[in-house]
Amino acid sequence: MSVQTITAVREFIIIGQDQGDCFQLWDVAPAPADPTKRAIALEELGVDVADALGDLHTEYATSARAAVDQLLGQLRERSGLDSYGLHPGSNLDAYGQGDAEPASTPAPEDVPYGSADALAACWDSAYRVHASSAPGLPVFNIDGLPGYHHVEIRDRVRAGIINSNLAWPMTNVLVKIAPIGRPEKVACSALDLAVACAVLAAAGDIHPDSLTGVTLIGELGLDGRLRVPRGLQDLPAALRATGNTTVIVPDGSTDDAAHHGYRVITATSLNQVLGILAGNWHHSSDCVHCGDDGASAPAHAPCVPAARCAACPAPF
Does the predicted TM-score (pTM) go above 0.70? Predict the structure, then answer.
């Protein structure tokens, strides 16, 4: 009597982008077996993938690779191109090839996986913003805020980054927001700038150390411009909790902080803020790394009179 091995067929979710003559695979994973969880996953992924100008497909197959191959066959037939296949920049680990084609696999240093921390302030409190960029389906989630505030910030940040002609990281992006102390009011759009900069630092667009020593405050417009947010009425009190003496705010913000001894830097757009951070223009004049020309110094943790950074070998 012969024994027949039966391989289970299941549904796979495939996300990527049709390039016309090839398909760039971002990720592929089994769909949840539970109907409710499947519906929720497809809805959330559909929104995120559409915002990233990608495509979402589902295929039934015995493996992730077989599912992708089925999709490629359909797209090849639709395009009429016999050469239609995977884009060289596809996620081959998800496809199942591993190191079969090392020339087409992104080098580890080119993969935007990392984390970064930023400080923000709003109303009467300061906030820690931690962003991580990890392997997985390209989704963007924010934890730590009640109600729909996280959804509003998420949508503004994503649109602001993309419309600033910056690449959105095709990774699993998670932002955790935690207040320093016990705020009396819920944080608002003043956190947008810190979230955006932390996300870009986690993805490798700017060095994470460039966020050290500065508090970031500002609402991010859908076009990438900075807007004056609500919640700046008691800014000096909120800044004290961050421990920073430098703050970046939108042009036209209150100057109360400057009257209390803080160094206030104004900016009009996300791109301008990134230039300030990358050039270390926000660092103290006593930073021994920057010297007289901070714009030419590499990203680093700043030295200030109250504390010397770990990389600095010489005392003040």
Answer: no
